[in-house]
Write a sequence for this structure.
């Protein structure tokens, strides 16, 4: 499968799209750059909304299911689905926010969008830096997983990263020299707890566009590969190969494209 973080990608033509052997394209959000907390000129809002429709159609035109979760810069209507639910079929482009989808028997993908407020190194919380959350998450991902049989294998796709991992903060911002922490402590707690009951083996997130990379959570008898593909606009993407070994799914390899 291929994983991307669009981040206002005015041009979405990375080389991986020339290869049609992928099963899924996972998009961690920010297809456009709307500022949902501050007013923008109406002309710019309409331009961004048109770009969202254009890019949604483009990413769904490659003959490979394109699944995305909304980022904090995507249209507010992409968060309309408020009740955790099992999705029964995919479109060419599917908004996976608050949905679970069974890819194969005992193999699921779970999606949840949005970001939490940024925290600075001195503990200052920037409450206007996120959407739709004004504080940390609660138990949203736990409620989604409750729809899935315990013990099944799961891929988690979110916009926001979990706290503590290397791709959840930016050190340091090129303009301000500040350290920004983007991760959710609640999401970290939820994921590490869920690993005790589910085979959560792959976690793809976005949001921290300039810190692509790969890390791991390890819990007793289980491991979860965490991938931040980085932004397509910056020339980043990740190709992840998974395989069923015995009764469990595992990440076999992760190929990252970096432009830095």
């Amino acid at each position: 499968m291929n994983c991307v973080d669009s981040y206002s990608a005015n041009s979405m033509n990375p080389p991986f799209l020339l290869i049609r052997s992928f099963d899924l394209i996972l998009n961690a959000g920010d297809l456009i750059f709307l500022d949902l907390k501050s007013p923008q000129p109406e002309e710019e809002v309409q331009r961004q909304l048109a770009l969202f429709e254009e890019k949604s159609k483009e990413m769904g035109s490659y003959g490979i299911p394109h699944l995305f979760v909304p980022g904090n810069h995507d249209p507010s209507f992409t968060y309309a689905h408020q009740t955790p639910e099992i999705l029964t079929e995919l479109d060419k482009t599917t908004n996976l926010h608050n949905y679970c989808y069974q890819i194969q028997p005992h193999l699921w993908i779970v999606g949840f969008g949005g970001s939490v407020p940024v925290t600075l190194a001195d503990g200052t919380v920037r409450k206007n830096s996120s959407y739709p959350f004004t504080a940390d998450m609660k138990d949203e991902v736990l409620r989604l997983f409750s729809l899935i049989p315990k013990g099944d294998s799961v891929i988690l796709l979110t916009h926001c990263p979990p706290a503590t991992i290397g791709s959840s903060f930016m050190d340091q911002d090129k303009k301000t020299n500040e350290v920004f922490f983007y991760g959710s402590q609640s999401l970290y707690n939820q994921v590490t707890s869920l690993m005790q009951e589910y085979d959560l083996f792959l976690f793809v997130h976005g949001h921290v566009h300039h810190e692509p990379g790969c890390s791991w959570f390890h819990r007793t008898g289980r491991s979860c590969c965490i991938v931040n593909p980085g932004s397509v606009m910056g020339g980043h993407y990740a190709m992840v190969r998974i395989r069923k070994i015995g009764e469990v799914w595992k990440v076999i390899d992760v190929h990252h494209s970096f432009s830095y």
Notes: The first strand starts at residue 2 and ends at 4. Residues 42-59 form the longest helix (18 residues). The two ends are 23 Å apart (CA to CA). The domain at 2-257 is CATH 3.60.21.10 (Purple Acid Phosphatase; chain A, domain 2).
